[in-house]
């Protein structure tokens, strides 16, 4: 039997963090010819992850351009994949999550009649406008995909409700695998401030906020709440790696510049972010990935969104949906800062997203599906 040719496709930093350990697992398996294609939808942020995992792509579309739009990203990715797929002729294409690269990669593979595997399948809010455009991207990829690698039972149940019942595997989330590589006790930050923070004496609150649906009044309220929390809690060091979006930059600096214990810093690479998360007191974020990563490190998460496609964290007690309302955000943050019992309940809750074996299960599932393995993969169960 000839080697199975499996191509991973990704283009943004969040995708790369979760796909890099899978690409490495594929490259180690006998019987698999592992190929990697990046679109570079996010160039610099993507490259930092590739460097950390020592992953060299076989194909690089390099599509990023100034002021790119969803249409330019999708069309350039789709056209670029045309040549790649015709040359490489993979037996399976793996895409991740819900980005424009994910949708375009899956659609390109479909046009070439190449089977598609969807890593991190089954996440849903059932509101096509939130998160935008991610909710529709993942639903459309779900309709195209032949193999669905679901992190959790509720993700699998979402697909079942949509009459997708074949090729589903319960694997856990690959981001937990990634943390095993990136988090180290002896880690030294390149951002000088992060090495100087007194993590044992102060309550370091890690913040991220960048989602499109939070632009406008929601972001104004979020930033105002962050400023209030920092000003009224001198024991807090608020650390905010600010997204490069001009909209986010302007709002963050307008509200938080001049607040002594609020530190606005440039975006961090994956190693720096994971190690900061491991040392912080709690996380306030509108990011999807951090809702999965922080619980694995025992850090409570306040989700700065109206809804989340990761309800497992809320159900398990590792995250709470703070929304975008000023009063609700400040009240929830103050409870965690002032009530040790409330903090401990979240910090010690069981992480529902994985056990560090997701990549192994996914590759086992692929080899079983294509007849290279006799036994089906084991399932991730909490």
UniProtKB/TrEMBL annotation:
Pfam families attached to this UniProt entry: Epimerase_2
All residue ranges annotated as the UDP-N-acetylglucosamine 2-epimerase domain in the record: 25-366
One GO MF term attached to the UniProt entry: UDP-N-acetylglucosamine 2-epimerase activity
The keyword Isomerase belongs to this UniProt entry's keyword annotation: yes
Superkingdom per UniProt: Bacteria
Family assignment from sequence similarity: Belongs to the UDP-N-acetylglucosamine 2-epimerase family.
Protein name, per record: UDP-N-acetylglucosamine 2-epimerase (non-hydrolyzing)
Organism: Flintibacter hominis
Organism lineage string: Bacteria, Bacillati, Bacillota, Clostridia, Eubacteriales
